[in-house]
Amino acid sequence: MKSAQNLRELPNSRNHNCFGCSPGNPSGLQMRFFTDGRAVYSRVKVPEHLCGWSNIVHGGVLTTILDEVMSWSAITLLKRIALTRSIAVEFIKPIQVGSELKAEGRVRETGGKNDAVTEGVLYDASDEPCARASATFKVFSPAVARRLAIADEASIAWFERIFNLA
């Protein structure tokens, strides 16, 4: 992950209960995100209650971390509301519960039908890749999100405010 001095923290609303990123979900990962304008980064330590077999982090939790960092990259870099359409994950090596992970996500391309293709990588404390993923997100403007009732009005208004879209 980049040096913290080159990154700015992304705002996060406490007005939701997302397992991955809500600061108010005591059972979740409470991920925080940072950007340099080209990618989105996060550091996370997976708590013991999210282990899989033995002391290994559950693969679904690793997938969640990758999904979060990739979705925040689409949201931040494209200034659009993003919903995951598909995700493919490659687990490279097991990760012990309690280990600090570094996550990085970036938008690889945008395409037809308001799709965004992203990539994400999880690194261990030695900066070795542990898992990587690619995903396609459906991205929406706030107006379309309202029309399709994708999110409640307060969430869409918050999104518009942080990206100066109102």
Q: Over the alpha carbons, how many angstroms does the gyration radius reach?
A: 16 Å
Can you tell me the CATH topology? Thiol Ester Dehydrase, Chain A
Q: Could you list the spans in which at least 5 consecutive residues all have pLDDT below 50?
A: none
For the sheet with most strands, the description reads: 7 strands, antiparallel
Shape: globular
Q: How is the largest sheet built, in terms of strand order?
A: 1-2-3-5-6-7-4
**Tally of helical segments:** 3
What would you give as the CATH superfamily? Answer: Hotdog Thioesterase
The structure class reads alpha+beta
The fraction of residues in strands falls at 25-35%
- State the domain count: 1
> What is the number of beta strands?
7
What is the CATH C-level name? Alpha Beta
What does this protein structure show overall?
The chain has 166 residues and is α+β, with helices and mostly antiparallel strands. It has one domain: Thiol Ester Dehydrase, Chain A (Roll), CATH 3.10.129.10. Helix content is 22%, strand content 33%. It is built from 3 helices and 7 strands, in the order E-E-E-H-E-E-E-E-H-H. The protein has a 7-stranded antiparallel sheet. Strand 2 (34-35) and strand 3 (40-45) form a beta hairpin. The longest helix is centred in the middle third of the chain and has 20 residues, at 59-78. The protein is globular.
